[in-house]
Amino acid sequence: MPPFVIIALVLILARAIAELWLSRLNQRHVCAHEDEVPPAFRGMIDEATYRRSVDYTLAKNRFGDITGVFDTLVLIAVLFSGVLPWTLGRFSASFGTSIWAMAGFLFLVGIALSLPGLPFAWYAQFKLEQRFGFNTTAMKTWVLDRVKGFLLAVLLGYPLLALVLKLIEWTGANWWLWAAAVVIAFQLLLLLIAPAIIMPLFNKFTPLPEGALRERLFALARRTRFPSRSIDVMDGSKRSHHSNAFFTGFGRFRKIVLFDTLIAQLTEPELESVLAHEIGHYKKRHVLKLIGLSITSVFLAFAAIAWLARQEWFYRAFGFEHQGGFVAANVVPAMLLFALLAGTIRFWFSPLVHIWSRRFEYEADAFARATMGEAQSLIQALRKLNEKNLSNLTPHPLYSGFYYSHPTLLERERALRIAA
Description:
This protein is mainly alpha-helical. The chain has one domain. The protein contains 16 helices and 4 strands. The chain has helices spanning 3-31, 47-80, 83-95, 99-114, 118-131, 139-171, 175-198, 212-223, 260-265, 268-283, 286-308, 312-317, 328-372, 376-388, 397-403, 409-419, and strands at residues 205-207, 231-234, 245-248, 255-259.
């Protein structure tokens, strides 16, 4: 077995073992606090609801263990069984190695690899979420969501793949720079048009009705100099009782979006504080920083793919033939293998990314507190959201470090009270 294959297998198994260990660590930590509501949360949540939050957390963790093991086994089978080079050989023999054929190969492999996860997605929605009273998705809606996602991938993703592969022949050794630039431009275009074109394909957006809440939220937008032409309500209850708020788009396409479930759960001051938090992300330039991180990641990814595409040992390790030259058929295996292996590497860097993300949340909370002139509205909103969503109130610190992009409720409350 080639050395790199051994290294890749060890890294994949190490990640799987680490995920299982972190899950068990978190489950034990949650169970240690399951008998009674921790002192910090007494008066915020009753015993019955807290017990349900513990059960929900444990159920999700255990289900995550099963899906994680299954995904690892599928990944190992796909990478090391020889099925990928065999499939590429048969596909090339039948359809050739043109740009459109190679893009089709990548696209179809991506679709095929997503199919084993569908039963798990169905179970999570219609069994696990249903058991805890969150699911409101009809089977028709669930199926239509996936059909729409597939059609969007055909209409947008397939031509993009073909263009990226064509750039290899057009630009030679520097193809990866041009490919990264094209992908980034495509992502920015999606950010621009998604609120007006793509998101309405999945959810209904209606203007927030005239009234005290609308006036209050627009007054907040004016007070914070947040440019927004509309505040929309999204029918989140169509799929789940979970709630959220966000803004999306740029310029004249920017939208402030509130889930209808959020409006039903929070008071007007609490909704204002949540929106102030979201505006804080904009004012602190968190969105631009995250876009910058995404741009850097895309360039690094394509640089890695271009380097791997020149390494014969890398191709041989996974059973592919290295043809040489700047042709799409030679780069396609590197793209595919990189996509399959990237998640394993990314997992080990997730704590660093989450440290950065949590710092953004603290800054947005601080902005909301300063804008509101008090912290209690945001604290109450966060408490209600954690209660209604049955969030894990006692995660193990190491588990939250790997998986939580937001600070825990207790950490956010402590920061808000100290600064108040």
